[in-house]
Amino acid sequence: MRVPASFLYLTVSAYGIYWAHHMITRRHTTSTVAYWYLDLLLGALILGIGAILRWTRWRARTSWLPVVGSAMIAGYYLGATVVTLHRQSVGRIKATIPELGFALIPVFLVLLLLLLALVEKLRPELVEPPPHSFDRV
Fold first, then answer.
1. How many structural domains is the chain composed of?
2. Residue 131 has pLDDT above 70, yes or no
3. Parent domain of 113
4. How many angstroms separate the CA atoms of 69 and 50, rounded?
5. Running DSSP on this structure, what letter comes out for residue 92?
6. Does residue 24 fall inside a structural domain?
7. DSSP class of residue 111?
8. Residue 51 burial by CB count (10 A; 0-12/13-18/19+): exposed, middle or buried?
9. Is the terminal CB of the chain with fewer CB neighbours within 10 Å at N or C?
10. What are the start-end ranges of the H helices in the chain?
């Protein structure tokens, strides 16, 4: 389970870095929301570093990095969800329910990623079988 989770962490990290870079450099952002993208960028960098360090001997000492990184990314997505739903209710965004549902898919994926990171940190035996287990390959 360690290898697929690491690739999932790296994928979300790469997308977070791309999206933060895109929003910071290519869009005109106001100072009231610019810190959201810095939070996303920092969280994605921490998540990427944590994913890479999972394959090294420092795994035990850095197992909190995916939790912190995915929590920062989830914080960005939850804030963006609240703002989007508020704009929808006020009428500033014209989107149908299926369009909103499709836009919220990344939010659910990031929340699942945070859950995976928490389970991996707090209950590692559920993700990685013990060395004496017959399930271990």
1. 1
2. no
3. 2-124
4. 8
5. S
6. yes
7. H
8. buried
9. C
10. 2-25, 31-53, 65-90, 97-103, 105-122, 124-127
Q: 85 is written with which tokens?
A: 């739903």
**Backbone angles phi and psi of 135, in degrees to 5:** -75, -15
Structure tokens at 27: 């869009």
Here the tokens at position 21 are 């870079």
pLDDT digits (tens, 9 = 90+) for 4-37: 778 889 999 999 999 888 888 876 666 666 778 8
Q: Are 20 and 37 in contact (CB under 8 A)?
A: yes
For residue 23, tell me if it sits in a domain: yes
Contact of 24 with 37, CB cutoff 8 Å: yes
Q: CA 93 to CA 81: how far, in whole Å?
A: 13
